[in-house]
């Protein structure tokens, strides 16, 4: 899944959308590599217009490993997709007996079987040897309530992520703009904070029409508007509690629909 690209995203979303329109299909299970599962799950959750379950599943151990986790993960994923209570919850990720909402889940460990977590909200349910229990439901817009539709999308704009650190430079921002980026997400320090040189480069990019969204590299929490960065003055937006990779997904779709910053701000507040 580290080789995922826009072309495959669009192909996958269109195929899943087509399958879910069939009367004899009650849901879809997608077996997927774990590296970019969270981004692809969120993308499908935003662009597919269906109440039926879309369930992503993977494994952290290969089928030849001791105590391989794949077979039970697949069994549980199919059980979730077949459960009537999984409807209208957007795309889901089922791993390690847990059910996570696509917007909230992230890969939080490189190798552990408990690699997936939803740090801001927690899992929304559990599945124990096929027995499914839901305890919460995602409230942000997704699938049937989303403002995006895969049928309207033919291509995706370029959006890059810049990772903040001490002694940061604006070179990567300038390169992104030169290469045609329509948006930039910053994995900022702490509450989305920026090194001065990079902040200046981003302000220049924003003035030139590039949409800049501040997120955080911390892994959880919301990025506050105007806390230590004057977003109103610099023309920046914030990612709410989306991590950088999820903020990139939403910004890509937002820019495919509108370049108006007020509208994009609304998308981040509602999706």
Helices and strands in order, then pairings?
Layout: H1 6-20, E1 28-31, H2 37-47, E2 54-57, H3 70-82, E3 91-95, E4 98-101, E5 106-107, E6 116-117, E7 125-128, E8 131-134, E9 159-163, H4 171-178, E10 183-188, H5 196-207, E11 211-216, H6 231-234, E12 237-238, H7 244-257, H8 261-270
Parallel strand pairs: 1-2, 2-3, 9-10, 10-11, 11-12
Antiparallel strand pairs: 3-4, 4-7, 5-6, 7-8
Helix pairs in contact: 2-7, 4-5, 7-8
Describe the structure.
With 271 residues, the protein is an alpha/beta fold. It has helices at residues 6-20, 37-47, 70-82, 171-178, 196-207, 231-234, 244-257, 261-270; strands at 28-31, 54-57, 91-95, 98-101, 106-107, 116-117, 125-128, 131-134, 159-163, 183-188, 211-216, 237-238. α2 (37-47) packs parallel to α7 and α7 crosses α8 (261-270).
What's the overall average pLDDT, rounded? 97
Oligomer state equals single chain
Count up the helices: 8
- If you compute it from the alpha carbons, what radius of gyration comes out, rounded to the nearest whole angstrom? 19 Å
Q: Kindly state the number of beta strands.
A: 12
Shape verdict: globular
Provide the spatial order of strands within the biggest beta sheet. 1-2-3-4-7-8
* Percent of residues in beta strands: 15-25%
- Report the structural category: alpha/beta
Please report the distance between the alpha carbons of the first and last residues: 24 Å
């Amino acid at each position: 899944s580290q080789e995922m690209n826009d072309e495959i995203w669009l192909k996958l979303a269109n195929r899943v959308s087509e399958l879910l329109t069939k009367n004899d299909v009650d849901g879809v299970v997608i077996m997927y590599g774990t590296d970019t599962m969270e981004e692809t799950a969120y993308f499908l959750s935003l662009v597919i217009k269906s109440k039926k379950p879309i369930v992503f599943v993977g494994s952290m151990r290969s089928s030849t490993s001791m105590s391989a986790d794949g077979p039970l993960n697949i069994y549980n994923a199919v059980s979730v997709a077949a459960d009537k209570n999984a409807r209208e919850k957007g795309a889901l990720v089922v791993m390690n007996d847990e059910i996570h909402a696509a917007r909230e889940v992230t890969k939080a460990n490189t190798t552990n079987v408990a690699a997936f977590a939803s740090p801001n909200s927690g899992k929304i349910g559990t599945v124990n040897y096929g027995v499914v229990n839901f305890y919460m439901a995602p409230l942000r817009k997704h699938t049937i309530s989303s403002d995006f539709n895969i049928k309207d999308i033919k291509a995706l704009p370029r959006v890059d992520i810049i990772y903040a650190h001490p002694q940061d430079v604006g070179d990567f921002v300038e390169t992104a703009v030169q290469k045609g980026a329509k948006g930039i997400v910053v994995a900022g320090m702490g509450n989305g904070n920026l090194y001065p040189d990079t902040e200046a480069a981003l302000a220049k990019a924003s003035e030139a029409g590039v949409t800049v969204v501040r997120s955080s590299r911390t892994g959880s929490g919301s990025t506050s508007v105007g806390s230590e960065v004057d977003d109103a003055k610099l023309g920046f937006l914030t990612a709410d509690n989306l991590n950088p990779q999820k903020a990139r997904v939403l910004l890509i779709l937002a820019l495919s629909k509108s370049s108006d910053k007020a509208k994009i701000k609304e998308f981040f507040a509602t999706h």
